[in-house]
Amino acid sequence: MLFRHYRLLHFTLKRNLSEVYSTIFLRTFAASLVGLFVPIYLLHEINISFSDLMIYLIVVFTFLLLGYIIGALIGPYIGIRKLVALSVPFFISHYLLLYALSSFNIPILLIAILFGIGDGIFWFAYNIDFSKFSDKKHRGEEVKVWFVLASLIGIIGPFIGGFLLNYFNAPLLFAIVVILFTLSAIPLLKSKDVFVRYKISIKDVFSKENFENSHRYAVQGIRHVASGIFWPIFVFFLVKQYFFTGIIFSVAAIVSSIAIWFIGNEIDKLNRKVFSDFTSMIDGITSFTRIFISSFAQILTIAVLGGVTYGVSEIAGSTLAYDQANKTKIIGFIIYREVIFTLSRVIFLGIFLLSNFDYISSIKLSFILLGTAGFLQWLL
Asked: 171 in helix, strand or coil?
């Protein structure tokens, strides 16, 4: 066990990339403070309609794909660290404008565009780094460690974020987030960059090899929306407070981190496609149960269970994706996967944008559709 932890630490340090991971740590903590609450804030504090929220999210995901493409085009010339640093001003601008939204008439689509581009650039840099340098034989374990670390950071983030929103005000929370994002850029300014040289073409993106597992990535995209965005909105609707919403997701993060740590140990020993499909089906069952909950105990139970099933299915899907990336042109595959993510999320959100359901009925429908998608992935 000690050797295993050393090897995982070695993955971080062997290329002298500790500055990148310091930045990722600060960014993850900043995002965990507020990420859970932004859609809730827009709905309940800014009072935008649910349809407007769908448009906002569609723009975010569309420009996230554009951010990926920007990252791919300029990455070979400026390096991984500068790509990560380049994403920071976009995040800062996004949260500053959210901060000002309650006082000024700011186009919400501009806010969505800034966040989408910044997020795309950041995740392109991270994914190319991990796809290129992670250890194939132990990739599932390495993905597990990142998910657990992110979950551990996420334990305190929603708690603090919910507390600040509930007992102070949104501007204070956004100010703290902006400061953290600003600090996250500092480590990157102190060190030599890491360059990954490559060429990219349309043929590399839409190659025959990349089509494998497309349906699995589409289900992941649906899961990101239904479980990552709609589920927190639904919990807030039931408990009525930011603080209690934060507590629920902090408790869920504690339990899911422990479970994911032990379950994740088995990923490298199993058929990853079978494991991905099975965990997607289990997560789908959890998604179905969300439409029936009403009491606080039920909410907490399903939040904990959903945290585990979501985390494990994401580890399985991400490990499979990093394997696939190394079988073909890595950059082309990463962009192709993001195309599938974007299409699945935009189509999924479009269903609710075009429907005439109220937003609670739409959210419940999203749980049903995610559950159905999980079963279909398992059956296929």
From this structure: helix
pLDDT band at 117 (very low <50, low <70, confident <90, very high): very high
Q: 375 and 280 in contact (C-beta within 8 Å)?
A: no
| In a domain? residue 361 | yes
Which is nearest to 274 in space by CA: 336, 216, 340, 223? 216
Q: What is the pLDDT of residues 256-276, one digit of tens each?
A: 777 777 776 666 666 777 877
Give the residue-averaged pLDDT of 306-319. 80
User: What whole-number distance in Å separates Cα of residue 125 and Cα of residue 76?
Assistant: 11
Asked if residue 27 lies in contact with residue 181, where contact means CB atoms within 8 angstroms, the answer is yes
Asked if residue 139 belongs to a domain, the reply is: yes
Is residue 199 a part of any domain in this protein?
Answer: no
In a domain, 100, yes or no: yes
The sign of the torsion formed by the CA atoms of 238, 239, 240, 245 equals negative
pLDDT at 112 over 80: yes
Q: What is the CATH number of the domain that holds 144?
A: 1.20.1250.20
Instruction: Residue 59: give the domain boundaries.
Output: 17-192+208-379
